[in-house]
Amino acid sequence: MPAKRFTVEQIIRILAEAELPSMSNAAVARKYGISQQTLYRWRKKYRGLSSSEARRLKVLEEENRRLKRLLAEKEWFRFYNEERPHSALGYRTPAELYRKWRLSTVYKFLPKNEPTSLLHSVKVVLLLSFPEAVMIGR
User: CA-CA distance, 38 to 45, in Å (whole number)?
Assistant: First the structure.
């Protein structure tokens, strides 16, 4: 038998009926085709809430679930595209490859007769001055 889905209003109504002194939990559970454990779980979750508050709780839970999923996808995408070494890139991360490419462009625009120490200091200055140039997609 497929599981029944009860709306928040129906759950609140069932719990109110279970609170009556003339009804036992087992009788209410039998009447609605649910287990007593489900009734206790609902009571723990929805006790003291009105229908509008319970609806708001459901909306907030759904929004929280959606935001967690978005954050997980973003973290996975960042790891996959920036931190994970790729075989096509010589087992380097895209950030490392971009950093190497960025530094190689420095050599093209500096005069050839300058000493290497100057080139090294220019690379360091560029990396310190423009950290956003090192990171991909930021």
Answer: 11
DSSP 8-state assignment for residue 23: -
* Inter-residue contact 43 to 15 (CB < 8 Å): yes
pLDDT per position as a tens digit, 3-22: 678 888 899 899 999 988 89
Q: Where are the domains of the chain?
A: 8-78, 85-133
Tokens of 54: 């319970």
Using alpha carbons only, what angle is made at residue 69 by residues 43 and 75, rounded to the nearest 5 degrees? 140
What is the rounded distance in angstroms from the CA atom of residue 87 to the CA atom of residue 2?
48
Alpha helices by DSSP H, 1-138:
8-19, 25-32, 36-46, 51-78, 94-109, 116-129
2: Cα within 13 Å, side-chain hemisphere: 3
Distances (CA, A) of 131 to 25, 121, 135, 136: 64, 15, 7, 10
pLDDT in tens, 84-138: 787 777 788 877 777 777 766 655 555 555 555 555 555 555 555 555 555 444 4
Task: Give yes or no for a contact between 45 and 61, defined as CB atoms under 8 angstroms apart.
Answer: no
